[in-house]
């Protein structure tokens, strides 16, 4: 709906907004917006001093779902200006002939939206997009009974598989993409899944190719000099790392536990939290993320208009 494409040159502008207010939401980070900009057709405009981002949900092949994210402010929200910005955004939806639809609204932004537009909105929890947040110390040490199974898998890998953990650099990109391609070929997909995988491959490529410009940190595990696991993350704020990508050969016992633990040991040692993003409503992914015992969830809401 908006007119400006997101480019690397926009990083400073976006982080001027996201860095001045505690949104805590992984999906509003510049790295996430940049790497998924093609999949979600992200565009932006500055409206009444707010950074406004629009997108299109392509999770259904039969129709396009237009949406916006909450208007982002620099510092404190001016509810009068926010009200004016929402009016402009609503007109954009009206021009498209589609209903007003706001996504990824953090819990603490709800009261601000209510103050800007009293008795205008319906707020619906979006559990599939809640972020999972863990103590970095827990993911590094894996101490206690709650991590017993994961520690066993990790120890098995360390004792039985000759491997090397290395920081991710440009020289590994080709091998990381090759691993991702191999992992995709091990499964059968529906037409929609195949479509989304093609788009996801592009997102992984964009993030890896531009990891230095994006300020990302990464790691890889080499077995017989071949990349068998890799991960990529970026700081969300001063105390939190977001894991944007994690890929591993699931046939190698303990490899997923190893890439997670090793990356956190190398890149999150001075941070308090690790945000491992959402589960998208996928049962196996939800089970895996819960098994690492998050200390908190970042709640997100969908916002629609009252009729």
From TrEMBL:
Pfam families xrefs: LPG_synthase_C
Name of the protein in question: DUF2156 domain-containing protein
Domain Phosphatidylglycerol lysyltransferase C-terminal: 24-303
InterPro entries: Acyl_CoA_acyltransferase, LPG_synthase_C, UCP018688
Source species of the chain: Crassaminicella thermophila
